[in-house]
Amino acid sequence: MATSLPFLGYGLGLRNEYYEQILEQSPAVDWFEVISENYLVQGGKALYYLDAIAERYPLVMHGVSLSIGGPHALDFDYLKQIKQLAERIQPAWVSDHLCWSRGNAHQLHDLLPLPYTEESLYYVAGRVRQVQDVLQRPLVLENVSSYVRAKADEFCEWEFLNALAHLSGCQLLLDVNNVYVSARNHGFDPWTFICNLPPQSIRQLHLAGHRDYGDYVVDTHDHPVCDPVWALYQQTLAHIGPVSTLLERDDHFPPFQELLDELTKARQLGASALAGRALCA
Amino acid sequence: MRLTDWQLAFEAHLLNDAPAQDHGFAATLRGGPSLDVDTGLAIYHNAYRARLLDVLRHDFSAVRYWLGDDEFAALAGAYVRRYPSEHYSLRWLGERFATFILEHLAQEHGAPLAELARLEWAFTLAFDAPHGEPLTLADMAELPPQAWPGLQVAWVPSVQQLGCHFNSLAIWRAAKDNGDFPGSHAVEPAQTCLVWRHEQVCRYRTLEPAEASALTTMVTTGGCFAELCAQLAVTYAEGAPLQAVTWLKQWVQDGLLQYRAA
């Protein structure tokens, strides 16, 4: 069950805009999630702050370049660097995305969707097992936002995630905002997505903001979390129990206190949802 | 369509100059209730370009300051078409930008602009280079007298050395200060500029020809302190050791040097 997994509490994405305030203020943040690629360097300010913050807070590594579903061979040099960084900062877990971000010849630097077919499933599951063999730990994979779907889909996204977790032993990073964004764009019920995932595989939740263009929604991480996503988050926690929760912001960075206030909101809404769950139990 | 073929078609869509009118690929996709396939594909197409442009705008802010947003965007777009990203980290996207500028623009405009791009890339390289083991004044104080003549030093790993034939530093400085564009012109003789990182802060400075020559002797060619003093004696006579120590102290305080590996 989810409760048997380490519950880190409520965390923030570590961004260089806030390095100094984190060290000076020791804010009440339970943990930080770091973008792995930002620290695959040999020296400098980022590593300096990472080491200092690692001494004070639990960390989780979150990558954007694994391209687990890409048409290319797995990049074992990249994986070696990820493993070395993990040895350096001892993250609670290592995550990336269920997507592809590199094409045949070039890096595309986006979290591109996969067709949810049997071919994709067995291809990705095999690669997940290879990655886990290298990292010597379960890989945690996040559902991505998407703006097109393949007509060839043979599974719903949640069915694919279920099957992938079963076949490969990977765990899931459930991005509640991404579910909401994709649900709006593709016209499915976000709660159907979430309640059909295997609770025991969900290791972490993401919360973030997006831009609503009326006819569609774009996952931008540059706004506060919106009310429907907060509601979905509470529903999720009430359903699966305590899961480590991370608030992301990747652009239009507000004053640090605003992010801390938003994290407090996550903490309060999370506690409320979990208290309601306890009463029902 | 097999997975690989579908992904290659998606990649081709992203790399096309304009949002694809490739209805063969679009026909493999479905949209949502109010998000049609063409709009969905355009979101991915625009995001790919915007993300790369953002990185180049950040890494080459002085080049952008010189060219203005529109001309910079056109140059950056041409660059990523010519040299699509090949490294998983966007940190390396601009590695060939200076070279591309020389290839892409006429020499008269390209040479000073490429030099400015090289200067900005030097800061990027210095920013996250290995720390090395910078010498300190305390290290120097502890050096026994008999060890001084044979002292050999090397650059710390972050040091980047550039020959500047144009007033690139003045343009870079004006860009950082958001000042008026100072105009571009050649400088004679060319300046040697060092860019490096000291205590997590990137620094730069130009060298007078005599100091540049001394650093060449001591660092680039690996000469020892006694050889530096001998070289300086030609100009400074009995004041050569004092001049050598003065410079060495400055270089050490700047965090430029480490012991040369045996």
Automatic annotation (TrEMBL), chain A:
Superkingdom field: Bacteria
Gene3D superfamilies: Divalent-metal-dependent TIM barrel enzymes (3.20.20.150)
InterPro entries in UniProt: MbnB/TglH/ChrH
HAMAP family listed in its UniProt record: UPF0276 (MF_00697)
Sequence similarity: Belongs to the UPF0276 family.
Cited NCBIfam families: PRK05409.1
Protein name, entry field: UPF0276 protein SAMN04490209_5114
Lineage start: Bacteria, Pseudomonadati, Pseudomonadota, Gammaproteobacteria, Pseudomonadales
Automatic annotation (TrEMBL), chain B:
Signal sequence segment: none
Gene3D superfamilies the UniProt entry points to: DUF2063
Putative DNA-binding domain sequence ranges: 6-101
A molecular function GO annotation: DNA binding
One Pfam assignment: DUF2063
Keyword DNA-binding: yes
Protein origin, superkingdom: Bacteria
Protein name: DNA-binding domain-containing protein
Organism lineage string: Bacteria, Pseudomonadati, Pseudomonadota, Gammaproteobacteria, Pseudomonadales
